[in-house]
Write a structure and sequence with these properties.
With about 260 residues, the protein is α+β, with helices and mostly antiparallel strands. It contains seven helices and eight strands. It has an eight-stranded antiparallel β-sheet.
Length: about 260
Amino acid sequence: MHIVKGSTDPIIVSVDGTLEVTEAIHRGIQAGEIDEEGAFARFFGLCTALSPQSSANKAFEAHEGFWAFGGAETLRTLRGELGWFQIEHLGGVPPAMLVPLFVHAAADTVAQLGSLSISSFSIQIPGHVAPVDPVWIQTLLDQFAAVDGATEPTKATVNLFTTPRARLRDSAVENWFEATHTGGIMLRTLTDENSRATFDDRWALRSSPMVLRAVFDVPEWSAASASTLVAFMLEAARASKIDGPVIVNVGRSESA
């Protein structure tokens, strides 16, 4: 593992899905007793509690966290973006190694409000991604080993968005997956496509003319499998020498 410096671009994690807030939470939102900025306390606390060494060593600093209450004044069931979180990467470890921590903390923070069904995560990672330890990749795969073959596999789609100047080389990405043991997470298709994606001013990219789209078989759809796919795609992007910030969207395939 290489020691890496921080970046001026933040790490961002956004959670999309469906959330049915509890009656008590709904009353609190209606009364103005629970506001969107309250998400930061849970997110910050979880990141610190789950990774005290990274926090103490100043590998990252959580800056912002918000729930998305659009429509919650009248509805208990919310759909679309449900929360987003911004973190500064200060260095010390590759940002890819922090992705599982932030994805789990983001999902748990949104689930604090009620019953959550996640459809996708979007994660922005700064450029100049350093390589991670292969042992760490195996550790990610070990999460699924105990129930291997006993779960219902599903499909997940990952979209990798890059800066307009970046040159996507899907052959280099394919080579990385061919050379890397990925256990029960199997790459099925990989395509380089035109994109009309646009992003608001929270993100480092405003648009991405190209997208690298990958479809995987995964043992389960969960924050664990989603964060593992993001980490894999970041490593594959590094192998392709993609420079600058990237945005990775990972979601359960509609056909699954």
